[in-house]
Design brief:
Shape: globular
Largest sheet: 2 strands, antiparallel
Strand content: under 5%
Number of strands: 2
Strand order of the largest sheet: 1-2
Order of helices and strands: EEHHHHHHHHHH
Oligomer: single chain
Length: 268
Amino acid sequence: MLTYPVFDPVALQIGPVAARWYGLMYAVGFGAGWLLGRWRAARPGSGWTATQVDDLITWLVVGVVLGGRIGYVLFYDLSYYAANPLEVFAIWRGGMSFHGGVLGVVLVSWLYGRSLGKSLLEVGDLIAPLVPPGLFFGRIGNFINGELWGRVTDVPWGMIFPTGGPLPRHPSQLYEAGLEGLLFFIILWTYSSKPRQRGAVSGMFMLGYGVFRFIVEFFRQPDAQLGFVALDFFSMGQLLCLPMIALGLYLIFRKSAQGAAPAARAKA
């Protein structure tokens, strides 16, 4: 059994202003995506400018934060927030839904794409490979917060989390950081480096994340207020992954008369 390294949730405090690790991890994730996006935009034939990427990332921050928070409220704990509406704004305490964040990203990507005359899939193919670093840092933030821990286990690397009771649990946040962050980044970045038909890179993101998250959910403790929501076996996170997997398969294998998207023809 490993000892959980208890962290001070506040990374830096100057007077009444406190920078929390959870928020810093989000900032680092967005920063990594922004730098990677500008790098891709600079490649010949990308179809994007650095300024367009700057504006897009700004809108994506709004989409992720609002969509992630609203998604968590609606999908995971609506009764609590209905009784405590001001808690909706306490984002620093955790409580973000990735699937809600995806919906927020889709909405702002569609709106921003329209302003540039680009389709949702064009925008999606650009930003999909930029997301895994954010997932990595986000899950590290969950680990630092001591939240979203895994199920009780007897594996040698099990940890006793301060809020998880007296028994060792899977450090499922680190599993997700490794699978949805590091490994998924390598897979998606490599996949997007070759010409693909429009929407295929977006589809690979949907498929890859859906599969990895579905697997990790078998090690992650279901939310206490929900428990298992299907057949006393599957979690809410797993159910929300199913449409992602289906949509990903469709986008990858559908036949399109458009062929490879111009942005994908540039070597990534």
